[in-house]
Amino acid sequence: MKKGKGWIYPYIQENKKLIMITVILGLLTVLSAALLMFTSGYLISKSATKPETILMVYVPIVAVRALSIFRAVSRYVERLMGHNVILNILSKMRLRLYKIIEPKVLVMESKFRTGDVLGVLADDIEHIQDIYLKTIFPYIVGFFLYLLSMLALGSFSLEMAGWVGLYLFVSVVLIPLLSLVATKRKIILIKQGKKALYQVLTDAVLGISDWVFSGRQEDFIEAYEQKERELLLIERKRRGFNRLRNFISQHMVAGLVLIIIFWAADQSELGFLPVTFIAAFVLIVFPLTEVFLPLSDAVSQLPRYQNSLERLKSFSNNRQSENQASKGSTYTEEIERIAAAKDVKLEFEHVTFTYQSGKTALDDVSFTLKQGEKLVLLGPSGSGKSTILKLIQGIFVPDSGKVNFNGVSASHFAKDRSKVISVLNQNPHLFDTTILNNIRLGNLNATDEEVYWAAKQVKLYDYIQSLPQGFETQLHESGMRLSGGERQRIALARILLQNNPLVILDEPTIGLDPRTERDLLENMFHVLRGKSILFITHHLAGIKQDDRILFVDNGNLIMNGTHRQLLSENERYVKLNA
Ligand SMILES: Nc1ncnc2c1ncn2[C@@H]1O[C@H](COP(=O)(O)OP(=O)(O)OP(=O)(O)O)[C@@H](O)[C@H]1O
Fold first, then answer.
1. Atom 23 of ligand 1: nearest residue by CA position
2. Which residues, at least 6 apart from 269, have a Cβ–Cβ distance to it below 8 Å?
3. 386 pocket-lining for ligand 1 (C-beta < 6 Å)
4. At the fourth CATH level, which superfamily is domain 99-317?
5. Which of 216, 276, 409, 509 could form a disulfide with 517 if both were Cys (CB 3.0 to 4.6 A apart)?
6. Domain 330-577 fold
């Protein structure tokens, strides 16, 4: 199957045999139901004529039994088969979605809203499932049934087949299409409204403590409920319209029954049809319309699918991340070599990067970081530090210039970046498991002794041992029971076990008091000796005389020199240090 070619057609193509079997089983189910009603109608009418012996109706009696068993069996097998195909398709769709999302996890924050991601994961794939179950399968079955009914009726009377064909066309094709046109806007509004509510709610849940502390939770609930009421109003109108459409469709069925009664009676009077067949012809209408009626509803759901499909497409069509994912595998060997050598040279060459919004975040930035060097990336808020970090991680690709590790573009690292780069950020995540497991995340093959060694390096060993359960202490959700400084030390211990050549410290001490900050930085730089360190910060705490400083401002690299040099040469730097 060619990936990236849509979310419906490739799966139909791949499963066409199974889908055909499901459709044939669906047809058999309806046909056996129709024949059952036909034979039952005949049997009742024939019995009413008081046949002399039971043998006269013996064949229809056996046929009724056989058909009812056959109908139940074929319906069961059809459902089994249908769901099997759908579950098979769904599992492949989910895997595909996972593969699309996984490499983008680091960009998610800047490119998608959480509500959007949840929407795709929770709703959209489920909706696509309905396309098959409620629209594609029923429509194919309905189409063949329509042809077969017309052929069967045509063998009795071509004129009648023509009229009934037209009548069914109006109720199966025209009414659904009209209802689609009438409800399309409402369905799109409902879907968009639900999406917006999803996003507002996600946003509010993420910032729930701020709502509570600002004392404005009532305002939020009121605004949310107001939007929900507006949506309900549209939904009520849509349901009202559907009820009207169903009412008209039911009356069309009643009309069809009357037409068949009059026609069959007429044919019987003219001697073309035995009287015992009148009921048979009338009863056959019911199982057939059972297939045709739900089609209106299936068609009116199309706008819902459209919205889901568009959202899934927007996920699969992210050019930047697709570039990285596709090229990543070609460079695996080279990346392994770089990781094994533990000798990395990071080069930024005339890098320019502009966000989709048009904001140029970096303009012609060049610098080099050799193995074992410490580079301090300094700059005020919004100057471009995080953008540099994302370019190093290969999440973004420069518009011009190069970001290379030993000559290999950072954007080729994709999933393998964790073999070369370690990142300690402002808020490392600790999981609800033991301290031992949390540290071992850095290297799942690390022995207990190695974990203890890492804990000693980051000066946490004695503290952990003093806890009643030592390294087996559970950290609870998000590692709540530890202080900010301790959490950073756990994360640092992970990095030591990871043992990568390049470590990026992304403002790891933000929010800590000056003393904890100083102790932590001292410990960090001590235990990370020999590694290349890129220390991103917006102030000068922990900086030594020989550290090389890169100062970015408004996307431009305006200072490049050691702390000592800049203090003696650069007035602005001196002021910063004051
Ligand atoms: N996803 C984005 N879309 C558009 N502009 C962005 C995006 N992310 C950042 N920017 C803009 O690019 C510029 C550089 O942002 P960046 O996050 O790199 O700064 P920073 O130095 O890391 O700031 P801080 O220290 O506050 O984290 C800023 O003006 C910012 O508003």
1. 382
2. none
3. yes
4. ABC transporter type 1, transmembrane domain (1.20.1560.10)
5. 509
6. Rossmann fold (3.40.50)
pTM: 0.61
**Which among 253, 255, 280, 252 is positioned nearest to 265, based on CA atoms?**
280
Burial class (CB in 10 A: 0-12, 13-18, 19+), 14: middle
Q: Which two tokens stand for residue 67?
A: 């058909």
Which residue minimizes the CA distance to atom 25 of ligand 1?
381
Sign of the C-alpha dihedral computed for residues 54, 60, 66 and 69 taken in this order: negative
Print pLDDT tens along the chain (578 aa).
444 567 778 888 888 898 899 889 989 999 999 999 999 999 998 888 888 777 778 888 999 999 999 999 999 999 899 889 888 888 888 888 777 777 666 665 555 666 666 666 666 777 777 777 778 888 888 888 888 888 988 888 888 889 888 988 888 788 888 888 888 888 888 878 887 887 788 778 877 878 778 878 788 888 888 888 988 998 899 888 888 888 888 898 899 899 989 988 998 898 888 888 888 888 888 888 888 888 877 777 777 777 777 777 776 665 444 334 344 445 677 777 777 777 888 999 999 999 888 889 999 999 999 988 999 999 888 899 989 998 998 888 899 999 998 888 888 876 678 888 899 988 888 888 899 999 998 899 999 999 999 999 999 999 999 988 899 988 876 566 788 889 899 999 999 999 999 999 998 888 788 888 888 898 889 999 889 999 998 888 778 888 899 999 999 999 888 989 888 888 888 887 76
Atom 11 (ligand 1) nearest CA: 361
What are the residue ranges spanned by the domains of the chain? 99-317, 330-577
ipTM of the assembly?
0.95
Q: How far is the CA of 383 from the centre of ligand 1 (A)?
A: 7
For the chain, how many helices (H) and strands (E)? 23, 10
Q: Which amino acid is at 158?
A: L
User: Is 328's C-beta closer than 6 angstroms to any atom of ligand 1?
Assistant: no
